[in-house]
Design a protein that fits this description.
- It is a single chain.
- This protein is an alpha+beta fold and 164 residues long.
- It contains four helices and six strands.
- Strand 5 and strand 6 form a beta hairpin.
- It is globular and about 45 Å long.
Length: 164
Amino acid sequence: MQQSPSSSTDVAAAVERLVQLYEQLTPGHLLQLDSYYASDAHFKDPFNEVRGVTAIAGIFAHMFDTLQEPRFVVTQRLVQGRQAFLAWEFHFRFRRRRSGSEQCIRGATLLNFNAQGLVCQHRDYWDAAEELYEKLPLLGSLMRWLRKAGSASRKTPHAHRSSP
């Protein structure tokens, strides 16, 4: 049984345990998620929104089923009260692509912990267009064109001229 985190030091210890889990995550660890997540934890990322440890485990199981060599590297962590913010890199290879080159998605996670030191809210933030869609063969060219067309920093002729 876990002790209640009565201070930010206790939450920091819970965050470190969670970081260690993420960085060493294997399909076998999915059966232990209830040691890290509250039973009714809420999880949201650009593709999923679920509630409960079983559903969260299902998201990670899908990751292992569809990607080769998925792994997380946590690059930064901030803890304040019962919240934590993690910056991370997600490395993987697509199973269905011939090139097999390693891909990297950079993102961040906002975590809220309950009084028992378990994650009750997990929200992932990352740009699916830049980090994923642009790397796909057909969709990538369209996404890169859209990004360029919508960029405020691209060079455009001035629409208005000053009158003399």
